[in-house]
Amino acid sequence: MIPLDYAAVNTQTIDAPWLSANAVQLNVLRLDKIHDIISGNKFFKLKYYLQEAQQQHATTIATFGGAWSNHIAATAYACKLANISCVGIIRGEEPATPSLTLQQAQQHGMKIIYVSRQEYKDKNALMNKHPGWYFIPEGGFGQTGAKGASEILSSAIDHDKYSHIIAAVGTGTMLAGIINSAQQHQHIIGISSMKGNTQLHEDVRALTAAAVATFEINHDYHFGGYGKHPPELINFINKTYEAHRLPLDIVYTGKTFYAIQHMVEENAFAAGSKLLMIHSGGLQGNRSLPAQVLAF
Ligand SMILES: *Cc1c(COP(=O)(O)O)cnc(C)c1O
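That is the input. Now the predicted structure with pyridoxal-5'-phosphate docked in place:
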């Protein structure tokens, strides 16, 4: 249904002194290259929700998100391709000018409804208002999203050879899918983009009933909290782009790559470790920055 360009997905080998000095290898699975709009993990997480909506002959898909949400952008475009009308329920009052992300979603046919932060908290009440709509949970969180995300690893060549798989965490849906599909010898590390969201471990557990791989969630690299992007992070993203031609985003993958470099430098991985970072795509957050802050 969604045209996935698997050929465009590949792993990029990172060559850097901080890796060779510690005898650690790092490859990055470039899911950001799958599609411009349904980028990265969103493609995988949406796959089975869309299938289910079509099986139920739903005429409208609705979901939730913030003004710069990759999930909203991806859902809008996926629904356009699937020819299903869609609604984005957005947190916060309607601004004078919608964000670029929401403008684009509207161009793709998404109807935008703004609700107050208070109303936004009660998803059940919002869903009960529209019993005929097929609702995708915020961020695609749930078993259906995790099922799609369990297909991420197999898109990486020789994925069994890695000792550690490292990915950004928002809702934890992607991480759950990766854990469910990993091998017993692999250790999965999630880097939380939020400050002190200790609920995440349980959320991921709830989606990983029969998992064999071990996992941990690291809370040390939030840079002040979700969506926060101090100059240190911006500089790091620009330097990484300069060194490796690897475009990262300020909400998720920038923090994850920073975490990996920092952990390698701190000797967190034994010599000979083979790391795979999932570049989960989603560059929408970067659009919230003024032009020229980022080098790409
Ligand atoms: C949405 C998103 C995530 C978070 O995925 P979860 O499944 O919610 O944990 C991570 N990285 C990027 C780039 C995203 O867009």
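The first strand starts at residue 11 and ends at 13.
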